[in-house]
Design a protein that fits this description.
Length: 452
């Protein structure tokens, strides 16, 4: 959510360099490529003093193994490294004013010699020093798997979630993993994938060998719901009521939405928002517009400050977030040409804190129109995915073998399926909401343009 490097990201995007095809056409201020240029521009002393600049997964791997070699996942997803084009693009980094990095053979970024692939056995495993620091001296020498970014670790564990003992008839390649929390990351895999405007990737081999990942994202989802509650005058009263009922604020609001709908003879809670709409990009749009300038909109509000006003605004925000996700899904489908499902996303597979919200999960299935698979409660998707990386390394994973895919299947958590709405009236309602959602983007851009 850090957008301090917006000016640097804009500078990089204006190069129109071919490397931008692998990041949806624009550099995001959330990418490390923009952040390192920001660091050089704003803190030159720190930049000059730094020997190595690392993503957190690579830093933790360095602390565990002593290896300073970077991971393919970190470099491809955040640093413009393209494995099937020779790695670093010297002319791109020269164009943005970092000739010194090129001259030094990208030493600050990890060099040009090697990268660790996901689940590959790193160096000589866990060092004695690291094992002792963690209180497990007997684990010295244990295999350490090539790391990935946290969201990709979540995708590893989430995308293979089992239903009734199997994959519920859908292949890994026809699924999209959603790691839902403060923000939401969407990751799909395909043997072949094409660049899509506004979608990050395709990133070749960053998870499974011979597969590319396409990544979408929403900068504020769970954090947006928190914000909506924090800015409404009735929220303290609702928190007190939730506490008396020994439930969470979101479970309380979901139950109140159902009661309100029933009291007004509405078939489902989202009908409460028929004339209230929320454009959810309060912190910019990561996908598919890749525009941090976009801002949120709420329409149809009245003077009511009570419970109904809070519930309606909350439900409208949930619907808006789900509409944003539908737009990401539609964009990713354009690039998933070799998925085996004709590029169609057949299942959304969820993990993370937001998937505990039943209203959100059901609304997501209804708005996108596909089945949603939710990992069983208590599963930490990122932690489980990290364990899969270690298990693949322990199995002797070297480079491009299939050990990691095997571990994805063997260690996949159990889950449940949430079906999308079935009635024509519900489908028609959500289709109208989605059309309004798209119109709001047009209006938001027009208003910004008028005021510039």
């Amino acid at each position: 959510m850090d957008h301090r490097a917006k000016a640097e990201a804009d500078l990089m995007s204006r190069t129109n360099h071919p490397i931008l095809r692998n990041v949806g056409g624009k550099i995001s201020p959330e990418m490390s490529a923009a952040k390192v240029l920001w660091l050089r521009n704003h803190h030159p002393a720190a930049w000059s003093a730094a020997t190595h600049l690392l993503e957190l997964p690579d830093f933790l791997t360095f602390k565990a193994t002593g290896s300073i070699t970077r991971s393919l996942c970190s470099l491809a997803c955040k640093w413009t490294y393209v494995i099937d084009r020779g790695g670093w693009s010297e002319d791109f980094w020269k164009q943005v004013g970092l000739e010194e990095v090129v001259k030094d053979e990208f030493a600050k970024f990890g060099g040009v010699d090697r990268v660790w692939r996901a689940g590959e056995s790193v160096a000589n495993g866990l060092t004695k020093e690291a094992a002792a620091q963690m209180g497990i001296p007997e684990a010295a020498g244990a295999a350490v798997g090539g790391p990935v970014i946290d969201a990709y670790a979540g995708a590893l564990s989430t995308i293979g979630t089992r239903v009734n003992g199997g994959s519920e008839g859908s292949s890994l390649e026809s699924r999209m993993a959603l790691i839902c929390g403060t923000s939401t990351c969407h990751i799909a895999m395909s043997p072949q994938a094409e660049p899509v405007e506004g979608i990050w990737g395709p990133y070749r081999d960053v998870l499974l060998p011979s597969h590319s990942c396409l990544e979408g994202g929403q900068s504020a989802t769970g954090s947006l719901l928190d914000h909506i509650l924090a800015t409404h005058p009735h929220t303290p009263t609702a928190h007190h009521a939730a506490s008396l009922a020994s439930t969470s604020i979101y479970a309380y609001l979901n139950s109140q939405a159902l009661l309100l709908a029933q009291s007004e003879n509405l078939a489902f809670p989202s009908l409460l928002t028929q004339n209230v709409h929320v454009l959810p990009d309060f912190h910019g749009n990561r996908s598919p517009l890749a525009d941090p300038r976009v801002r949120g909109i709420k329409t149809g509000l009245g003077l009511d400050k009570g419970l109904k006003s809070l519930v309606v605004e909350y439900v409208a925000t949930v619907v808006g977030i789900c509409c944003g996700l539908r737009r990401v899904v539609e964009s990713v489908e354009k690039g998933s040409v070799g998925s085996g499902s004709g590029g169609k996303v057949e299942r959304l597979v969820l993990s993370g804190g937001l998937c505990k919200n039943e209203l959100f999960v059901q609304c997501l299935a209804d708005v996108v129109g596909v089945k949603v698979v939710v990992a069983e409660e208590g599963v930490d998707g990122v932690l489980l995915g990290s364990a899969m990386l270690g298990a693949a390394a322990a199995a002797g994973s070297e480079g491009r073998n299939e050990a990691l895919r095997d571990k994805m299947v063997q260690m996949a958590p159990a889950g449940r399926v949430v079906e999308p709405c079935r009635t024509d009236s519900e489908r028609a309602f959500y289709e109208k909401k989605y059309r309004v959602f798209l119109k709001m983007y047009e209006y938001e851009a027009q208003m910004r343009e008028m005021m510039e």
